[in-house]
Every structure is written in C-alpha cells, then in structure tokens.
Amino acid sequence: MSTLTEAPPPLTPTAPDKRPPRTRGRWTPYWLLLPGVLWLVVFFVAPMVYQASTSVQTGSLEEGYKVTWHFVTYWDAVSEYWPQFLRSVAYAASATVLCLLLGYPLAYLIAFRAGRWRNLIMILVIAPFFTSFLIRTLAWKTILADGGPVVGALNTLHVLDVTGWLGWTSGDRVLATPLAVVCGLTYNFLPFMILPLYTSLERIDGRLHEAAGDLYAKPSTVFRKVTFPLSMPGVVSGTLLTFIPATGDYVNASLLGSADTGMIGNVIQSQFLRVLDYPTAAALSFLLMAAILAMVTFYIRRSGTEDLV
Amino acid sequence: MAFSPSPVNWLKRHLVVIAGLLTLAYLLLPNVVVTVFSFNKPNGRFNYEWQQFSTDAWKDPCGVAGLCGSLSLSLQIALWATLGATALGTAIAFALVRYRFRARGTINSLIFLPMAMPEVVMAASLLTLFLNMGARLGFWTILIAHITFCLSFVVTAVKARVMSMDPRLEQAAQDLYAGPFQTFVRVTLPIAAPGIAAGALLAFALSFDDFIITNFNAGSTVTFPMFVWGSAQRGTPVQINVIGTAMFVVAVLFVLVSMVIGNRRNRRTA
Amino acid sequence: MTTNSTKNQTAATDGGGDVRLTGITKTYGSFTAVHPLDLTVPQGSFFALLGASGCGKTTTLRMIAGLEEPSGGTVHLGDQDVTALPPYKRPVNTVFQSYALFPHLDIYENVAFGLRRRGIKSVKKQVGEMLDLVQLGEQARRKPHQLSGGQQQRVAVARALINHPKVLLLDEPLGALDLKLRRQMQLELKRIQTEVGITFVHVTHDQEEAMTMADQVAVMNAGRVEQLGTPADLYENPRTTFTANFLGTSNLIEAEVDTRSGDDVVVRAAGDKLVLPGARCSAPAKAGGTVLVGVRPEKISLTHADDAGSVPEGRNRITGRISNTSFIGVSTQYVVDCAACPEFEVYVQNIDRDARLAPGAEVVLHWNPAHTFGLDAAQDIDAGVAEGEAA
C-alpha cells in the first residue's frame, strides 16, 4: 500500500555485449498483467471517469443527460449535505479510535498471552464473518432494544445521562442515536483492526520485552517504548482498514440510526437509487473519494510509515 | 516477578487479558443473539423480541419465499467471482513480485486504489458505467462488480506469499533441468498455493457477504444479503437467523476439523 | 564419467571437461561485481573460490551455473560454449547456499527431481543408491523441514550429484552448519568427490575449509582473482598482501633492499639485517628500494635475550619485548613489540615451556631465511586483515 508515493523502479541494467539478448521472460510480465489490468481499466478506471463526467452533467431522466460542465452541482451538494459529510468523518473517526482501544488488548492477548488458546481465540475472532454482517448488525437492534437489559444497565449507571448531555443519545434510548451507529460501526470493523495489529505484534521477538525489562524498564515503559512503536505498522493499516470503509458505510446508519444520523453513504445511496439525481450523487461520491484519499495520504505521510503500509 | 496476592495486583497483571476477553465478548455477543433468536417464535413480522422457544424455523429453513433461492444465487456468484478474481489477481501478483518493468509503480497504485476507496464510491461509479452502457442490471453486473473489488485483495494475499518465497527454489529447479513452464508448475505453483488459497478464500467471503456494491448494481436480482436487507424493512423471518447460525457453526467445525487433521498428520510424519 | 544423454549434453568428452572462463565479467549499473576474469578449472579437480563476502565469488559461480547472465566474456564446458544456455540446459548442478530444498516435496522426490525433468522414468534404483551414498535411505519419505541441517545438506548434494553433472557447483554449502559438523562434512564431501570424480567448484569464505578440501584455490578480492594455486603454495608463497593476510596470519615488515648476493636478497629493517631467497620475492628487489618482508608466525623461534648467544648463525633475527601471551593448548601465541614491527606474532608449540617468556621479557626472534617471502611494498600492508578476521 506504499505505492501511492512509489517512484518508478530503475530499469534492469542491460548487458553491453553483442549476443542476442535472451528472451527469457522479457514479455512475460506484460502477458501476466494484461487480463487483470485490462479488467481494472474497464471496470474501475472507466467507471471513475464516467462518474466524474456524470457529476458535471445536467438534464433529466426523461430527456437524458449532457455534459455541460455544470460545476455548480458540487457547490450545491456540499452546501446541502455538509452535515452528513461531517457526521461521516466524526462517526468513522470515533469508531476507529474505539476499534483501536478495544482491539489492541485482544490482539496483544492473542499474540503474547493466549498460549495454547491462541488458535481458538483466532477462530472466534474470524468466525463471526461467516454469519452475514447484515444479520449480525440486526442483532444489535435486539441488544440495544429500548427497555432491554443493556439500556437498563446503562440507565442505572447513569451513563445515558452523560451520553445524553453529550448529544450521543437521547432520553432513555440508545437505538436510533449516534451512539448506536458508532457502536455498530465499531463492531463491524473491529476484526479489520485486530488482524493487522495481531500480525505486527506477533512479529515482535518476545526477548525484546525481556531485554527492555533487563534494562530497567517497567512493564508500562516496555509497552510505551518497545511494544507500541514496533506495532505501528499494524496500527496504521488497522486504522486505515477501519476508517475508510466506515466513512462510506450506510448500513449501520440505516439499521441502527435515525433520520438525524444519516451519513454521506446514505445520501449517495438514496440519490442514486431512489431520487435518481445522478449528477448530485456522482458529485457526492467523487467528493467522498477525494476527501478520503487526501486524508489517507496525509495520515500515511504524518505517521511516517510509507514503507510499512 | 514478585508474587503478591492482593486483588489490585492480580487485576493489574491480568488487565490485558480481561480487556481482551471483554472485546472478544463484544465481538461474539451478536452471534449469540442470532443463535438464540433462531429458536424464537416471534409475534408479528419482526424477530427482535424474545417470545417463546420453538424449533419451527430449524425444521423448515427454506420456508420463506425467496430465501433459499437468494442463498444459492449468492453462492453461485461468490464461486464465479472467486474463480475470476483469483485467476486475474494471481497473475498480477506474480508479475509484480517477480519482474521489474516500467509501469510497476502505476500498476501498484491501480491495485491499491480500489482498496483505499469506500465501497459506496466504487458501487456508485460502476452503476454510472452500467447505466451509461445501457447494461441490464442483474447477475452479470453483480459478478463483474464482485470480481472488480475482490481482485485487489487477491493480489495482496498472493503477493505476500510469493514475496516470502525463496527465489533460490526456482533457481534450483532451473538448475535441475526444469524449463520455465516446468519450474512454474512443479515448484512455484505448489509453494504459492497457500497464498492463492488464502486469496481465494478471502474473495469468496467478501463476495458472499457483500451488500453495498451489490445493492447498487443488482437491479431486481436478490442475493442473500439483499434478502436480509429487504427483510429488515418488511419483516425479519426467523429463518435468517437459522441460516446465519448454521453458517457460523459449519465454518467453526470446518476449521476445527481441518486443524485436528493437520495436527494428526504432522504427528504421524514427524 | 557418465554422461546422461539429453539433447543438450552433446559436449565432447575427451579431455575437454575443463571449465574455462574467458574474460568473463559482471556489472550491475555502475558497480562491477566481477572484473574480466580468465580461469580454467581442470576436469576432475576440487576447486575452491575463496574470498570475503562481496568479492564476486558467488557471482562467478552463478555465471557458470547460468543463473546470472555475464555482462561480457564466455563460459566453456569442455569445447562447448554454454554462455547463452539457460541453467536448465547446462550439464552443471548446484548445491545452493542454505540448500533450497523444495519444501513441498519429500526427500525422495527432491533427489529424483532432476532425473524426472529429463524424462527418465525409472528413477527408483538411482535415487535409492544416491540416498545410500549420503546415508539417508531411511529418511526418503520425510519432508526437508523434518531433517537436521547436516541431513539437509546431504540431500542437497545428492539432489545435484544424481544427475552426473560435468561440474558440481557448491555455494557456501557448509555455511549453515556448526563447527563440528562442518569439519565432518568437509571430509565427507572430499570423499564423495574422490569417489565420483566430478569436478567440484566450491565457493567459500572460510580459508580453512578451502585449504582442507580443495586441490586448487583461487583467492578472490574485489571482483578479481588475487592468486591461484594449491593450498600449500598459496600459504607458503603469497604474492600479495591480501593473500598473505587473508590466508592465515603473516608478519609483514617494511624493509629497505640492501644488496643482492647470489640467490639471496639482503634487506634492512630498523637496523636488523634480514635475508630472503630471491625466488620468493615477488617484488622488484632493486638496491635502495623498499619491499615488504613476510614470515608466518609458526616459523619463528623465540629465545630469551639472556640466551641470545645460543641462537645459531645464519638465521634471521630480530629483538623485541613480549607484550602479550595467550595460551591456546597445543601452542602459545606471543605478541612481540619490535622496532621493525610493533605487533609481531609468534606461535610456539608447547613442548618445553620457558617460564621466563612472560609479558615484558626481552626476546630474540629468529627463523630460517628460507621461510621468508617478499612482497611489493606499493600495496596496502593491512589488505585482507579485516576480511580474514571476519571470515
């Protein structure tokens, strides 16, 4: 994933002698690449171009659309839907932070403390994938149901008062509030955080902990100075794998949220599939893509892990 | 480490384990709910509140119109998408790891971008393409969309394996009179097989469970996730939970059995 | 030597089993890994390419195998020019560094791999014999990762040898083994080579390994062959400071040429007069010029200064003071501080130990002039020291 900034590799030095060059594999890479790259050009690059062109078209479903370089669509889209944009980023960012906070201990547990339970826990982390994520997300409706045990407990502990004051919940409800949406997002993308974290933690040589302890580091210092820095590649790819899909998600907001928790994905979906306002939908989708690419590039640069991702 | 029996110290030492297990519980809680509610007998159309125990749904998992049809359609699409994405992706992965050529950086970005994009963007752009081409939305558009977004994941999985392969193994094969084709079939492919299998498995899971991209490009065709989505609006039959539970159990059993077999085989040959 | 006839192995068999490298060179961009190199490996010999890492020895080996394309020059096996042949068409096999055994195939299939690729159907007898030769008949159905390092190494040898190559190339084959096993495998490889009579080209950074096993050693440094010869010849008559320092240890003294008397050259170093045979001086020894005078530490006798009178006439002698001693068991190593050379090394067999030879003692170092050699003083006097220590 480091390739956003990768320079073209130097050409292989060619032999200066006169013998005919051996044809060993000169064209092989191109033949190997051809079908897959062609596929991506037709079904990934071309659609992006179509989408960009659609976003500056005007017209109607009945009369057809024409490219009129109508950039005002972008302005209208932003001024109308900026709350959804902001909400998407805020929800996704909260979910990402929660995923990191929840996922790190579990990844650490699997990597260093699980012993012979390691494989079993690993299976339990991955196995939920096999139940359709929509079914599992619907289960949260039951878990967070009004008057259910979870809401009851939160109420008793006065957690809902705090979250209500923060605007995350309203009244005695968790369902149909931002909290429910973030909770669903966190749940859905948690494995995408845990797996890369585990991979990079597992690579750490256990003797490093002993060495650090031997050199007068307290367990908490060992974690801050050795373990966490070494797990940075996992943290970076985990946060990316969580944040990117969470920003575009509309399933959690639809199933667990309300009209007031709509994310940008919900808008794009309804513009495309229900309102059928293709230019606005295309413009929104294009903006979302640009925003995410910008954020991701900035993040990778800042975390200094261009080679690691 | 100094042993001290005070509960505060005990808590301190096991903090990570406790936190980890709580996260695991958070991850598994919905599956427990899905399983429990597969034995429910709901009042009305929605299966969100516990009423009474019943095994009706387990006795008749296909008892809801369209459910099993959508399941079989999802399996078919996942199978074909896996085949397509694995074939295309494996070839790209080999080219990227094993050869140096001009466009390498560009190709790498081309592979990375689909993964760095929210699904909804890819879904929307594919829909614009299909609309512009006047294509009829259905099985084929879903299949094309699935191959497209699975492709990059297959490339990544296979690339990791091929990169960790010792290039000397292929040189050894060449040294032992295997031509390029023989080398590929006898050495490269068998050793890369776990990576290819991992990529294929990932593609299958992604395709089978995909909703967002399918929702945009399916037209009136209904895959299993589409069916669940639809029922979330109209009414959730208990059978959905039955299918979800069954898939979970089958997957766990499959993994456990293959692990046991693997262990036993290792012990026998060791 | 049996030549399994495949369509590509048509090389002449009579007397033409030599490996001949002519002007062979390899460059990577602006870096030259191997400078134009001429080398002939006689048929049936055990030949070692010896050098520190990065000296171009492995690149040379890989060019013979066909795994690396030379930037210039030719490779001949006998009369056949194989320069343009890919590795799978060359009658040459390689024992790779860390073996490169196919992890997905068992030992039997690893060994049978080459035969099968050449379309030979009945491999059972040959594989069985080969596994017996390397004493692995019992392990035939195991996977490589289930074997020890030494066993894996023998599988790698068997896998290559079963093809009866014209030349067997060994790329640091013993590098991954511990010292004891390495010694054992050195003898084992030597035995196999004598038994099968195939030309072995062995790449190593371990000078002891090269000297124990090889008939001929080429010492390589920075992409060039420094010196070529039998192990004894290289050790006794180094022609460059690199060879002198890389192979064993040498005491090198900068000296001024005094006179030439008959076959001998007389030189002066810090007031001491030393004599060396003219035939053993590879430098132009003109009166007034400088040469590097060398002598190996084990050639030197050590006498306490009080007994200086007992030193026989006609020996080269230098006086100094012992600065350090270390007891090794079979011998004691002394470091002596002399005017001509601040760290003169002397190895003395522990036959009768003189208790007076302790640090601080004044001593006379003396040796037979015939054991002295002379080198060109234009070279770096420490060339090869660091490489020799690392190896």
Describe the structure using short key phrases.
heterotrimer; A: 309 residues; mainly alpha; MetI-like fold; two-stranded antiparallel sheet; 69% helix; 3% strand; B: 270 residues; 76% helix
Describe this structure in words.
Chain A has 309 residues and is mainly alpha-helical. Chain A has one domain (81-303): MetI-like (MetI-like fold, Orthogonal Bundle). In chain A, 69% of the residues lie in helices and 3% in strands. Chain A has 13 helices and two strands. In chain A, helix 2 (72-113) crosses helix 10 and helix 2 (72-113) packs across helix 13. In chain A, 42% of the residues are buried. Mean pLDDT of chain A is 85; it is low at 1-23. With 270 residues, chain B is an all-alpha fold. Chain B folds into two domains: 1-64 and 238-270, no CATH class; 67-236, MetI-like fold. Chain B is 76% helix and 0% strand. Chain B has twelve helices and no strands. In chain B, helix 8 packs antiparallel against helix 9. The model of chain B has no long low-confidence stretch (mean pLDDT 90). Chain C folds into two domains: 19-236, P-loop containing nucleotide triphosphate hydrolases (Rossmann fold, 3-Layer(aba) Sandwich), CATH 3.40.50.300; 249-390, RNA polymerase II/Efflux pump adaptor protein, barrel-sandwich hybrid domain (OB fold (Dihydrolipoamide Acetyltransferase, E2P), Beta Barrel), CATH 2.40.50. Chain C has nine helices and 20 strands. Chain C is 22% helix and 33% strand. Chain C has 391 residues and is α+β, with helices and mostly antiparallel strands. Chain C has helices at residues 57-65, 107-117, 124-133, 149-161, 179-196, 207-213, 231-236, 241-246, 385-390; strands at residues 19-28, 31-41, 46-50, 72-77, 80-81, 92-95, 167-171, 199-204, 216-221, 224-229, 251-261, 264-269, 272-277, 290-295, 301-304, 316-327, 331-338, 344-349, 362-367, 373-376. The chains are: A mainly alpha (309), B mainly alpha (270), C alpha+beta (391).
